[in-house]
């Protein structure tokens, strides 16, 4: 037996063991894996012989994991789940170019969605499914080919990253709110309701510092997980907020939001297209990447 196979039991035995460990029954495990009860029993016996240790205690008609079996099940189940997800992801692709992309919700709604007709016109055969994710994740645990990330490159280690663009956050409020509060300088915002996006709670402190205002400790104000929720609260007159200008162009053009002070805030953080290392050669992802980079370059 070569080294590669020495520590890798047959997949059929592992699958039967996982099902039996889940159900506590060889017969119910057989229903799940498509084998008879006796066939499952033989697979378990094969695995126990391979490992040279019993994995179950037989209690009447039922089986129960013993200590070794419980420890083994906990170790192999995540690996089996990863194999299942990877297989399902490949099998579910309707074409070689099909992709599944995770995107930040507001970015997907206000930047990606309006540009998708251009992607479809350029690559009519490219099938792309989008889903929202706000935080970095393990590509081995999620069924995505790529994702949109905002932050610093080191915040999502172990992946390939393509820089897209930086954002400019601008202070915005409703026109009626501005008229009622009579702002003349950035310092006039001190003491006003300062709304935030939940992952950018330090934005107001940085904005005041950049504007040369000694703000001191700022009292915590309302925070929203998504920028578009934040924008709607500001439109309703809840206060003033710092929001990336590209996300609120419709509101700015319609006049439902206005910029009281033309002092945009930038940072070293940026938007990136991230994907597993080694997947860059995927033909569908290569086309999507080229389109994303060209579209971001025009931003």
Q: How many structurally independent domains? A: 3
| Widest beta sheet: strand line-up | 4-3-5-11-6
CATH superfamily of the largest domain: Periplasmic binding protein-like II
Might you state the CATH topology name of the largest domain?
Answer: D-Maltodextrin-Binding Protein, domain 2
Beta-strand content bin: 15-25%
Query: What is the percent of helical residues?
Result: 40-55%
Distance between the termini: 58 Å
* Overall shape: elongated
Name of the level-1 CATH class of the largest domain: Alpha Beta
Characterize the main sheet.
5 strands, mixed
The helix-and-strand class reads alpha/beta
Keywords: DNA-binding, Transcription, Transcription regulation
Domain HTH lysR-type: 9-66
GO molecular function, one term: sequence-specific DNA binding
Protein name: HTH lysR-type domain-containing protein
Keyword list:
11 helices, HTH lysR-type domain-containing protein, WH-like_DNA-bd_sf, four-stranded mixed β-sheet, alpha/beta, D-Maltodextrin-Binding Protein, domain 2, transcription, five-stranded mixed β-sheet, WH_DNA-bd_sf, Arc Repressor Mutant, subunit A, DNA-binding transcription factor activity
Explain what the structure shows.
- This is HTH lysR-type domain-containing protein.
- One of its GO terms (molecular function) is DNA-binding transcription factor activity.
- The structure is a single chain.
- The protein has 299 residues and is an alpha/beta fold.
- It folds into three domains: 3-78, Orthogonal Bundle (Arc Repressor Mutant, subunit A); 99-166 and 269-297, Periplasmic binding protein-like II (D-Maltodextrin-Binding Protein, domain 2), CATH 3.40.190; 169-254, D-Maltodextrin-Binding Protein, domain 2, CATH 3.40.190.
- The chain has eleven helices and eleven strands.
């Amino acid at each position: 037996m070569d080294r590669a196979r020495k520590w890798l039991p047959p997949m059929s035995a592992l699958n039967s063991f996982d099902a039996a460990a889940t159900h506590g029954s060889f017969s119910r495990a057989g229903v799940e894996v498509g084998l008879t009860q006796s066939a499952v029993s033989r697979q378990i016996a094969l695995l126990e012989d391979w490992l040279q240790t019993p994995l179950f205690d037989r209690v009447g008609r039922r089986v129960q994991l013993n200590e070794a079996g419980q420890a083994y099940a906990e170790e192999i189940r995540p690996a089996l789940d990863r194999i299942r997800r990877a297989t399902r992801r490949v099998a579910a692709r309707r074409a070689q170019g099909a992709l599944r992309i995770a995107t930040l919700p507001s970015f997907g709604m206000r930047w990606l969605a309006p540009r998708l007709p251009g992607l479809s016109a350029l690559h009519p055969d490219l099938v792309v499914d989008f889903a929202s994710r706000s935080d970095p994740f393990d590509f081995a645990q999620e069924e995505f080919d790529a994702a949109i990330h905002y932050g610093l490159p080191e915040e999502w280690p172990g992946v390939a990253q393509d820089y897209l663009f930086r954002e400019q956050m601008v202070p915005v409020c409703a026109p009626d709110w501005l008229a009622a509060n009579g702002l003349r300088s950035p310092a006039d915002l001190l003491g006003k309701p300062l709304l935030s996006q939940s992952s950018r709670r330090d934005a107001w402190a940085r904005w005041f510092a950049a504007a040369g205002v000694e703000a001191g400790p700022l009292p915590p104000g309302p925070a929203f997980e998504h920028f578009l929720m934040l924008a709607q609260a500001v439109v309703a007159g809840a206060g003033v907020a710092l929001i990336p200008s590209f996300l609120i162009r419709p509101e700015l053009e319609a006049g439902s939001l206005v910029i009281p002070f033309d002092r945009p805030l930038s940072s070293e953080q940026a938007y990136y297209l991230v994907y597993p290392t080694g997947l860059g050669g995927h033909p569908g992802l290569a086309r999507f990447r080229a389109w994303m980079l060209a579209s971001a370059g025009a931003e």
